[in-house]
Amino acid sequence: MATISKYQTSGGSVRYRVRYRTPDRRQTDKRGFTTKRDAEAFANQLEVDKRRGAYVAPAAGRVKLGEYAGEWLGSKHNLKPSTRSRYQVVLDTFIARHAEVALGDISRQLVREWVADLSASHAPASVHKTIGVLRQVLAMAVVDNRLVINPADGVELPAVGTVEQRFLTLEKLHALADAAGEHRALVYVLGTCGLRFGEAAELRWRDVLLDKKTISVRRSVTLVDNKFVVGTPKGGKGRTVSISDFVADLLTPGAADELVFPDTAGGHMRGTNVRRRWWLDAVTAAQLFPRVEKNAAGENITIYEFKIHELRHTASSLAIQAGANIKSLQNMLGHESAALTLDRYGHLFESDVEAVGIAINQLLTRDCGQSVGTDAA
């Protein structure tokens, strides 16, 4: 049990000290209470926390957020380079602004204030990502027994607006591919096989089996700090996807280690270069998703807009139209779970309520006859 004693400061003021043992049986104390009631309240809460396993040494919470966030990132050994780079940006910006705040001083109210400040200058999605990093840092502090609870948990964040998914019809996909010229095959691979851009950029001829009409997706390339980094696909797992005869006929095999879709210099494609060199022109020529806006002279002009990644949505839509089920679509896209696939693309599947009713009725009547009744009592 804790003991309370009175002492006098050098200035003559009366203060109270609480002596107690930590859960590992080390004796320590906390001084400076101005009233005995405050000292007793601290001692009582201390005993409750020890019984609940929620005891945190006062010194543990004095570690600064900036220092501890650096330790957190250093402990993350399995991050993809692109993810590590994104986390580092948060540490260099948001965390750096609050680096001198002690972990023990971070309350839910303080986190709410940080969220409000971020929301004034950042998009909701950016706020979610930033606070997500903070939440992970503080979660490790809870595990390390530096905090009792995670003050970022349960803090309300700004709503992220849903972005409408855009899909190309088969006719529009053909138009885009034709407008892409020498890049026609790339448009069809992205628009029918569901590869991510980074996966297509690292695709090599040894991964393409034209006789079996398959593509083995085992690697992806990402631009991190202006350097190409090759790693596993998103989710860490490879997959095999089918290619149609139509698309296979557009591919002319090269040496096994050569890139299937190289940049003009023979290296990996850069998304910015692709958009600037031919993608935007192809989208305009195919007249995809027009919108009207005013130019500097105040005149109405038509802008055409479609993102490279949206070819992945197009591939999903076409696969569903062709009769693909959720599991096969999950494999094609490389999603970690069918639930994610269903959440993203479930609305594209037609309702089978009537078909299910008919099927169940057939099961009930197949062996029992058409008239299954109940004998009168």
From TrEMBL:
GO BP annotations, alphabetical order: DNA integration; DNA recombination
PROSITE patterns in the cross-refs: CB (PS51900), TYR_RECOMBINASE (PS51898)
Ranges of residues in domain Tyr recombinase: 163-358
SUPFAM superfamilies per the UniProt record, alphabetical: DNA breaking-rejoining enzymes
Domain Core-binding (CB), residue spans: 63-142
Highest taxon of the lineage: Bacteria
GO MF entry, a single one: DNA binding
Similarity field: Belongs to the 'phage' integrase family.
PANTHER family: PHAGE INTEGRASE-RELATED, PROPHAGE INTEGRASE INTD-RELATED
Protein name (record): Site-specific recombinase XerD
Gene source species: Mycolicibacterium fluoranthenivorans
